[in-house]
Amino acid sequence: MKQKEWGQPALAVSQGARQTVPKTSFSGSFAKFREMGLLVFIVLLCAGVQLRNPSFLTWENINDIATNTAILAILSVGMMLVIITRGIDLSIGATLALSGMIAAQTVQQMPSLHPAAALLLGIAVGIVCGWIVGFLVSKMDILPIIATLGMMNVFRGLTYETSGGKWVSAHQMPESFKALATGTFLGVNNLIVIAVLVYIAAYYFVNHTRTGRRVYAVGSNPESAAISGIKTDRILWLVYTLMGGLTGLAGVLWVSKFASAQGDTASGYELNVIAACVLGGVSIAGGSGKVSGIILGSVLLGILNNALPMINVSPFWQSWIQGMIIVVAVIINALVKRGIDRNNLMRRKI
Amino acid sequence: MKKMMTLGLTAVMAVSLLAGCGSNNNAGSGESGGANAAADASNGADAGGKKKFAIIFKNTGNPYGEKMMEGFKKAIEEKGDEAILKAPDQPTAEAQIQMIEELISQKVDSISIAGNDPDALQPALTKAMKAGIKVSSLDSAVNAQSRNTHVNQADPERIGRTLIQGVSEMIGGEGEIAILSATSQATNQNTWIEWMKKELEDPKYANVKLVKVAYGDDLRDKSVSETEALLKSYPNLKGIIAPTTVGIAAAGKVLTDKGLKDKVKLTGLGLPSEMAEYIESGVCPWMYLWNPIDVGYLAGFAAEGLVAGEITGATGEKFTAGSLGEKEIVADGDGTQIMLGDPFKFDAGNIAEWKEVY
């Protein structure tokens, strides 16, 4: 069923392409509606939670949700690119831990280091990790799921090795480093600011650059992409490296936010990121996925994480409810999208 | 190109294998060197009729383990015997098995071990017991068949009751409190929470109300969300008990970031190094954990008791553990154990010293 749904990857590309043509006013507005189902679902969910706990929709809580979701949202951008190319990256939880650990140990040794330098160091570590994964996938032709599963263990092992099994704790980190995640810019938490910047860059990259469009082309049909002159292995290498860089960034932010680096940081977190992408309408079959979609996907997961503890249900039911909400959201989104796709096709015939 | 790659990869694998063997060899020779030294020392000591008590910790370079071995050594030396302190380079059962074998051939009188695996050590430890060596575990238990008894960190009842007494003192004996635990299935935490609830039944806590038990699953992000939800759902909350290391640190971070230091008090069980920041800032006035020195010290006296025949490791037996006073052996599943007793209190006065330890 899913195949049938998203089996029109070429459509996604042509839609994207059409956005640049001036006469797209209505198709452009329809493109936005594709995520309408998810948006409506989020609004209903918020209303429901608000009825049960009036402190849900307060400014403070919304701020908390946004801050807690920022890291997930940043990772979703990279994961979306990877999934669009028909790949998957299971190594990001480990990469996140490794880059966070190295950054934390560096500031522990050099407390006077500017936090921006720690941030850059984390990104660099992430890029190296992503570059290796990208090499395995693009040059060695190893299946992404296998390559990243292997590297997941390698990176996790390296994290334990560099830390010697020890944690870097709050009192070992300088205030300036912790302020990275608690500080604000124009009244908005730094994490949110960074996530917004990442999203603006990602939006521009996937919609308005040649390389960005090639990512979609490689994902929807690798063979024809190769025939039309796109160096598919370079695109693959690039998306995994980008994923690594974003993960490195997220790793430093994570450690700064929780003021603690441990070996098992973010273990299994990659599944949350993949869930956010799939919720946001990124097709596992490759070729389609939108920035607006993954924002909504991440936000929905963020709201769930915040809301479930607040509606006061037994912890035994929490996972059940979380799973059901995700399934229902995917179904509603699929139904709405199917209707809109059909409408779009009908309009094309006329 | 492909061939080159294959060649290259094969070479890398071969080198890494060699490197692995190399380091193993080094470790092996290092260990046997240590064992030889110990054996020499014991040969000298044999003349004086000293008994030999060995302790094997999980791995070297672990400050928590160093403290435990320090306590063990103190107990053995108080009795005038000789302590052999050992720990493998890597926290694996294999490395510990090798050490047990060495100790058996050295004919020590007792082995106390913090097991890296509850079951994998069984063959080696039963062999030791057959050779007449008294075996006990401490800190992390080995299974009941491979030990005479086990020395447990702290008594679950004392942990639960102490935490409630602590939080009640912090909030002045009245107000709402909440518990932030690990997973809803965690055996340790659930036992402690049971004891907390029993302690709360005491009429002196009539004004202390436990509003919720939240589960942070020992994940940073989930523990943070759960703490935030507690603060919002219960605006009058005055105290949080987090009997888990990740949970208490996450709660400390949330209370710090939200500037709730004077409004909500935090206590629980945490690692001193993780909690130093929050204890020094006053977000968490004090917290508890067991004292590794005392765990080692008690294990030392338990081993002495076993060797002297004072105890056999059966339920109901009692012995005197130096400055810790009289201890009783109690049942623990199939086997038996000895409880350390009250958890150790970490506050602003002693945290500076302990944060470097573990």
Automatic annotation (TrEMBL), chain A:
Which InterPro entries is this protein grouped with?
A: ABC_transp_permease (IPR001851)
Keyword line:
Cell membrane, Membrane, Transmembrane, Transmembrane helix
Where, by residue number, does the polypeptide cross the bilayer?
Answer: 65-83, 113-137, 142-159, 179-206, 235-255, 267-286, 293-311, 317-336
Q: Which GO terms describe its molecular function?
A: transmembrane transporter activity
Can you list the GO cellular component terms from the UniProt entry?
plasma membrane
Please indicate which superkingdom the organism of origin belongs to.
Answer: Bacteria
Q: Does the keyword Isomerase apply?
A: no
Q: Topology with regard to the membrane?
A: Multi-pass membrane protein
Question: Which CDD domains does UniProt cross-reference here?
Answer: TM_PBP1_transp_AraH_like
Location(s) in or outside the cell: Cell membrane
Stated name of the protein = Rhamnose transport system permease protein
Give the organism the record lists. Answer: Paenibacillus methanolicus
| Source organism phylogeny | Bacteria, Bacillati, Bacillota, Bacilli, Bacillales
TrEMBL record, chain B:
Name assigned to this protein? Rhamnose transport system substrate-binding protein
Q: What are the entry keywords?
A: Signal
| Annotated segments matching region Disordered | 28-47
Q: Where is the Periplasmic binding protein domain?
A: 53-310
Where does it localize?
Answer: Cell envelope
- List all Low complexity biased stretches: 28-45
- Signal peptide (residue range): 1-27
Q: Which NCBIfam families match?
A: RhaS
Its Gene Ontology biological processes? rhamnose transmembrane transport
Q: What is its main location?
A: other
A GO molecular function assigned to this protein is: carbohydrate binding
What would be one Gene Ontology cellular-component term for the protein?
Answer: outer membrane-bounded periplasmic space
* Record-linked InterPro entries: Bact_Solute-Bind_Prot2 (IPR050555), Peripla_BP_I (IPR028082), RhaS (IPR013459), SBP_2_dom (IPR025997)
Signal as a keyword of this entry, yes or no, is yes
Q: Which PANTHER family match?
A: ABC-TYPE SUGAR TRANSPORT SYSTEM PERIPLASMIC COMPONENT-LIKE PROTEIN, D-XYLOSE-BINDING PERIPLASMIC PROTEIN
| UniProt cross-references to PROSITE patterns, sorted A to Z | PROKAR_LIPOPROTEIN (PS51257)
User: What organism is the protein native to?
Assistant: Paenibacillus methanolicus
